[in-house]
Design a protein that fits this description.
Layout (H helix, E strand, L loop, with lengths): L1 H16 L13 H9 L5 H4 L13 E2 L3 E2 L1 E2 L5 E4 L1 H10 L7 H4 L1 E2 L7 E2 L5 E9 L1 H5 L8 H18 L6 E8 L4 E10 L1 E7 L2 H4 L3 H4 L11 E7 L13 E2 L8 E2 L8 E6 L10 H32 L1 H30 L2 H18 L3 H4 L2 H29 L1 H19 L1 H14 L1 H5 L3 H18 L14 H11 L5 H8 L3 H10 L1 H42 L15 E6 L14 E3 H7 L11 H9 L12 E6 L11 E3 L5 E8 L17 E5 H11 L3 H4 L4 E2 L6
Parallel strand pairs: 13-21
Antiparallel strand pairs: 1-2, 1-7, 3-4, 4-11, 5-10, 6-10, 7-9, 8-9, 10-11, 11-12, 14-15, 14-18, 16-17, 17-20, 18-19, 19-20
Helix pairs in contact: 10-11, 10-12, 10-14, 10-18, 14-15, 14-18, 14-22, 15-16, 15-22, 18-19
Bound molecules: arginine (ARG) and aspartic acid.
Aspartic acid (ASP) binds next to β19.
Length: 715
């Protein structure tokens, strides 16, 4: 009996531990497949990824480079998040036709809107090409030379490895350079906007609720893939036809219960789960706080203007959301890493690692890795901080500086590549820059500039600053630049670009704004970048060997997954609530009741459309409600990150049950340190999505395209 109890306890620990990780869909057979079935999965690994038959991967493309989508009809209809379609929705919006505010629905295909630069990419197959990529590199001792050779091999393999003419070969590294996989892909370029709810549904709760559970956001939008007559990718043409997918997802509207199996397939962007303690400490103590402070200042200014002017609100909505998103994430991450004692946990791991190295007699190979890390991370600290300040202040958050930086690159191009390249770039800039100024407001940027340049001059490591910023008077500098620089409007920007290279360079160097960004960029390029790159290269090499050692010295059964790298992955777990704090437990499901609890009439973030209130009052939920309640969001232990937004949440049979869009506040540290106790992904319930399309928007045309599995008792 005692023995049985012990077995049960052991089993429990096992199933608890079997969570986390972002796995490669072509490599699930074996450990993952068994684990997934133990957790409740009913389909096989072959049904998730297969080269010869249609499988789930054929229904899950990457959406526009940074998100995920899923195909949900045989006419190329795809579903992704509202925040993933946000840029496109914003682009189609004006004060008169404000699709951000009011939503948009194409009630027939002719009404769908084109999106010139949008792309959707499918994975056709995945192959291991490690040996080919590493060919001829074993004997190279200089790290820079080795990387160069690898890049050359990748470039040549990408062109020589077999593929169809309309496909691409993409080679990506896994386990920090210990494995290379080839992805043969197809990228569709005619993607049309089909529908989105108003922001008061699709972005309900906005930045206050972002990264937070309990959540009540209907974060979805719809697009359609168009292809040429052969069903191959093609740029927009009126002759293109809806794409016929190899596979689309049936929709399960029966809902799940706590502890049911779920999995999420998608394109997670970047995680760093195997960083040493020294690096994590630097993130927590130095880098995150600095970045947070810069964004905090920029956001406060933008928010002030957006609240009082609808035109500015439209201009800055997408930029604000992007900046606010990681600002808030870094805060949650820092807090979570501290609370979980991640640095101490890493130190413990490192102590064990050292012991394993000794036990295996591998001191010569692996004995110095941790002391090398310690030395490198100490040495890189100021450079890394200066790099973050430069990126955040100049490239990301002060618009006049970021646009000035493009001109700085133009001048560099003339110096390095000559007249022809200069003219080509100049013409592209001249044409393309109206997109930037369309959403530019001088007053907003001026106020941001003053705050941020002051932070840069006072907080970024002094030893690297350009002379122009030593003891600078920020408000005087701001007034000077914003009265005199030509970077502040489309017309004057274009004036700067008029003329031959000599004239342009002369004009640029006489411009106050240009002079400032040039002095900043020059100082950065001279004082920070070379040293940063040098130490970083050492860290990359050390990390690769460290990863190799971890793989080699861990027991066979260890669940060591490769960090996210924007390639197709699958993560799995269970629907589950969690305990964020002492005496508090969060249940895993939310309903429309919660939307109404949060409702603040006319509020910037928590308004609710009248139509939704009416449906709520009438409990008019159709087939999508359960016992008089309308499900809205749910959470599970799936290990996701940025890029997983829009990913399908699937049930045990591989049917669509929801749409991933976020993580919970207490678990945002999962990019660096995943804990199954507290890390949860947030999904919008597919029943809420269908309810909004059907009952709220009355878009029966969309509902009729879908394959909805009717619950047995409702048939
Ligand atoms: N936090 C989610 C993700 O990282 C959602 C972001 C969009 N929403 C927002 N309020 N900014 O993408
Ligand atoms: N919201 C994220 C995304 O856009 C997902 C996440 O970071 O959890 O990909």
């Amino acid at each position: 009996m005692k023995f049985l109890k012990l077995l049960l306890v052991l089993f429990f620990i096992q199933t608890q531990a079997q969570q986390g990780g972002m796995w490669i869909p072509s490599l699930l057979k074996g450990m993952n497949e068994t684990e997934m079935k133990n957790l409740g999965m009913k389909i096989s690994a072959e049904e998730i990824y297969s080269v010869n038959h249609s499988s789930l991967k054929d229904a899950v493309p990457q959406f526009d480079g940074g998100c995920t989508a899923e195909v949900i009809s045989d006419k190329g209809l795809i579903l992704t998040n509202h925040h993933c379609g946000f840029d496109a929705i914003q682009n189609h919006s004006t004060v008169e036709h404000d699709y951000l505010r009011d939503g948009f629905w194409a009630y027939k295909m002719e009404d769908e809107l084109t999106n010139p630069n949008m792309v959707v990419m499918f994975v056709v197959r995945i192959e291991d090409v490690t040996t080919k990529v590493l060919e001829g590199t074993a004997t190279i001792t200089s790290e820079a030379e080795k990387q160069k050779k690898i890049q050359e091999n990748i470039a040549s393999l990408s062109t020589t490895l077999p593929k169809e003419t309309w496909q691409e070969n993409k080679i990506r590294t896994f386990y920090d350079g210990n494995q290379y996989l080839l992805f043969v892909t197809e990228t569709f370029k005619d993607i049309r906007f089909v529908g989105a709810p108003p922001s008061s549904i699709g972005k309900f709760g906005s930045d206050t609720d972002n990264w937070v559970w309990p959540r009540h956001t209907g974060d979805f939008s719809l697009f359609r893939i168009y292809a040429d007559k052969n069903n191959h990718p093609a740029v927009y043409s009126a002759d293109n036809v809806p794409y016929k997918p190899k596979k689309f997802l049936p929709i399960n509207i029966s809902g799940l219960k706590e502890n049911d199996f779920t999995m999420v397939m998608g394109y997670p962007g970047r995680t760093t789960e195997y960083l040493p303690s020294f690096a994590v400490n630097q993130i927590v103590e130095t880098l995150n706080p600095a970045k947070i402070e810069v964004r905090d200042a920029a956001l406060k200014v933008q928010d002030r203007f957006m609240r009082k002017d609808q035109a500015i609100k439209i201009q800055y909505a997408s930029k604000y959301a992007g900046v606010a998103n990681y600002w808030k994430k870094w805060m949650g991450e820092t807090k979570g890493l501290k609370k979980a004692n991640a640095v101490a946990a890493k130190q413990k791991f490192e102590k064990d690692f050292q012991e394993k190295v000794i036990k295996a007699g591998k001191q010569a190979e692996y004995g110095n890795l941790l002391s090398d890390f310690e030395k490198n991370y100490n040495e890189i600290k100021d450079y890394a901080l200066a790099r973050d300040y430069f990126t955040e202040v100049a490239l990301r958050n002060t618009e006049i500086l970021s646009v000035g930086y493009k001109l700085y690159q133009l001048e560099q191009l003339l110096n390095t590549k000559g007249e022809q390249s200069f003219n080509d770039r100049k013409n592209t800039l001249y044409k393309g820059i109206d997109d930037f100024y369309k959403d530019y407001n001088l007053e907003v940027d001026k106020n941001v500039f003053e705050q941020l340049i002051n932070l840069y001059a006072t907080k970024s490591p002094k030893q690297f600053l350009p002379e122009t910023l030593l003891n600078v008077d920020a408000s005087k500098l701001t007034a000077d630049i914003f009265t005199n620089s030509k970077l502040t409007s489309l017309t004057s920007f274009r004036e700067l670009l008029d003329g031959d290279s000599k004239t342009v360079i002369e004009k640029l160097n006489n411009d106050k704004g240009y002079q400032l960004i040039k002095s900043m960029a020059d100082a950065y390029a001279k004082n920070v970048l070379p040293k940063y790159d040098e130490i970083n290269l050492k860290n990359i090499a050390t990390q690769r060997t460290y990863m190799k050692a971890i793989l080699e010295l861990s027991p066979k059964s260890s669940r060591i997954f490769p960090d996210a790298n924007s390639t197709l992955r699958i993560t799995y777990g269970k629907v589950k609530g969690y305990k964020p704090n002492d005496a508090v437990y969060y249940e895993p499901f939310t309903t429309l009741d919660g939307v109404m609890e949060k409702y603040i009439p006319g509020d910037y973030e928590f308004d609710v459309p009248q139509k939704l209130i009416d449906l709520y009052k009438a409990k008019d939920y159709g087939n999508y409600g359960v016992k008089g309640k309308m499900p809205v969001c749910f959470i599970a232990t799936n290990h996701t990150t940025g890029g997983n937004s829009g990913s399908p949440a699937l049930d045990a049979n591989g049917n669509l049950i929801g749409l991933n869009f976020d993580r919970v506040w207490e678990g945002t540290m999962s990019d660096i340190y995943y804990s199954p106790d507290i890390c949860r992904n947030i999904m919008v319930d597919v029943r809420y999505v269908l309810f909004i399309i059907d009952k709220f928007a009355g878009a029966k045309n969309i509902i009729n395209e879908l394959k909805i599995i009717q619950p047995a008792n409702k048939k």
